[in-house]
Amino acid sequence: MSTAVTPDLVVDASRTLCPVPVIKARQGMDRLKRGQVLKLIATDPGSKADIPSFARVAGHELLSAEHSDKQFVFLVRKGGK
Amino acid sequence: MVATAERLVQENIALFEAMHQQAHENEPKRVAIVASKGTLDMVYPPLILASTAAAMGMECGVFFTFYGLNALHKKKSRSLQVAPLANPAAPMPVPNIIGAIPGMTNMATWMMKRMMGKQNMPSVAELVKVCQDSGVKLIACTTTMGVMGVKEDDLIPGVNLEGAAAFLDFASKAHVTLFV
């Protein structure tokens, strides 16, 4: 659990499918500075694999990935790229 | 002596490969996609992949050729359709031959759009906009434009006009190449 981390921005991509959660994650990241944290909420089952891949390739740090009751919640720290 | 020389060569090759890999590690990954289909269902996959690639920080170019060019066409991109005929996967719970009846293409298109709307899927125009805003290189095939009588003004603004050689040049440095 990473409840200790307070997100700087919360983006809700619920009830959307690929590619929207990743696009919304990117748009959220564009509004943050390096080191700030984005909280992304999604319901697309693909996001469970997609968001960690997005974070890794885009150079961000995935702090946590939790899912409960068909909802996925990710905390991603903006990286340097 | 010979064995030692061979070992030295092998070590140098390994060192060279490691240096080469390191030098290219920080380069952005490049994705090159050919979009060749002009039906609603087949225009989505290249646009989804391209917009996602750009969101991940990859460098992406999409070459729109033949019917695929409809996705960049100001008017035609708004009226893309699903073909129910010879498409057993079309969203119609009826025998495929029914797809030949007039109006069935409209119906299949309507059903697909309704299904997409229910899932909040972006429209083709919205996805193209996301691609452009995130730096995807959208390339219109000039041969297609010539064959099909498409003028530059018929296409959305900001599109690159290129032929096969320019795209192959771009794609030859790509890490991912896809033909849709």
Task: Characterise the protein shown here.
The complex is a heterodimer of chains A (81) and B (180). Helices cover 28% and strands 32% of the residues of chain A. Chain A has helices spanning 20-30, 47-58; strands at residues 9-13, 37-42, 61-68, 71-77. In chain A, strand 3 (61-68) and strand 4 (71-77) form a beta hairpin. Chain B has 180 residues and is an alpha/beta fold. Chain B has a five-stranded parallel β-sheet with strand order 4-3-2-1-5, sandwiched between helices. The model of chain B has no long low-confidence stretch (mean pLDDT 91). In chain B, helix 5 links the parallel strand 3 and strand 4. Chain B has a domain at 27-79 and 122-179: DsrEFH-like (Hypothetical Protein Ychn, Chain: A, 3-Layer(aba) Sandwich), CATH 3.40.1260. Chain A binds chain B through residues 15-20, 22-23, 25-26, 53-54, 57-59, 81, and chain B through 29, 48-49, 51-52, 54-58, 119-122, 127, 130, 134.
Poorly predicted runs of chain A: none
Assembly form of the protein: heterodimer
Helical stretch count of chain A? 2
Instruction: Briefly note the CATH topology name of the domain at 27-79 and 122-179 in chain B.
Output: Hypothetical Protein Ychn, Chain: A
Instruction: Assess the beta-strand content of chain A as a share of residues.
Output: 25-35%
Strand order of the largest sheet of chain A: 1-2-4-3
Helicity of chain A, as a percent range: 25-40%
Considering the protein shown, what is the CATH homologous superfamily of chain A? TusA-like domain
Through-space gap between termini of chain A: 26 Å
Separation of the first and last Cα atoms of chain B:
54 Å
| CATH architecture annotation of the domain at 27-79 and 122-179 in chain B | 3-Layer(aba) Sandwich
Brief characterization of the structure:
Chain A is of the alpha+beta class and 81 residues long. Chain A has helices at 20-30, 47-58, and strands at residues 9-13, 37-42, 61-68, 71-77. Chain B has a domain at 27-79 and 122-179: DsrEFH-like (Hypothetical Protein Ychn, Chain: A, 3-Layer(aba) Sandwich).
